[in-house]
């Protein structure tokens, strides 16, 4: 029973850490996608890729936030050294970033074409695509980070 409670607690903390990291990633994406095209106009469509640098920079912000929250609140230390653990975490995050960028392009190009109006805010297709990509990749991230990096 204790193990089940600890497991549920870990999943809850992972969701909270992921949620905070997603807020950082989505917020920074909003900032980058709003201001970066003023300095680099091809950002909105760079050789057929929409918002590549905004995606990359915001994902880096989210990854770093997630790393520190994960080691402080979510996972216990694994069998790896801190250095090796960080390298593995970044490698998994890099692969996840590639998946996230791919999913974003698919969502933005083919699925989310219109704004979604909420009571207090309107979500643009690029924001909806970013959120959907984050949610999809987070499932993969939890599994790999728990099994491979932190040996849970």
TrEMBL record:
Pfam families reported in the protein's UniProt record: GtrA_DPMS_TM
Residue ranges occupied by any GtrA/DPMS transmembrane domain in the UniProt entry: 14-150
Membrane-spanning intervals of the chain: 12-36, 56-75, 87-107, 127-144
UniProt xrefs under InterPro entries: GtrA_DPMS_TM (IPR007267)
Location in the cell: Membrane
Keywords: Membrane, Transmembrane, Transmembrane helix
Coiled-coil ranges from the UniProt annotation: none
GO cellular component entries: membrane
Any one biological process term the GO annotation gives: polysaccharide biosynthetic process
The keyword Ubl conjugation appears for this protein: no
Membrane topology: Multi-pass membrane protein
Major localization listed first in the record, in broad terms: membrane
Protein name in UniProt: Putative membrane protein
Species of provenance: Chryseobacterium populi
């Amino acid at each position: 029973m204790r193990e089940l409670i600890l497991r549920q607690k870990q999943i809850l903390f992972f969701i909270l850490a992921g949620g905070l990291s997603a807020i950082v990633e989505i917020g920074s994406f909003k900032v980058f996608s709003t201001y970066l095209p003023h300095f680099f106009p091809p950002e909105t469509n760079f050789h057929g890729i929409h918002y590549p640098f905004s995606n990359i920079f915001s994902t880096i912000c989210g990854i770093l936030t997630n790393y520190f929250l994960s080691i402080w609140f979510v996972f216990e230390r694994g069998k790896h050294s801190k250095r090796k653990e960080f390298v593995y975490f970044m490698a998994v995050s890099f692969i996840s970033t590639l998946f996230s960028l791919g999913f974003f392009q698919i969502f933005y190009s083919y699925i989310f074409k219109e704004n979604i109006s909420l009571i207090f805010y309107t979500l643009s297709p690029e924001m909806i695509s970013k959120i959907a990509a984050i949610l999809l990749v987070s499932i993969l991230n939890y599994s790999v980070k728990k099994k491979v990096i932190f040996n849970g």
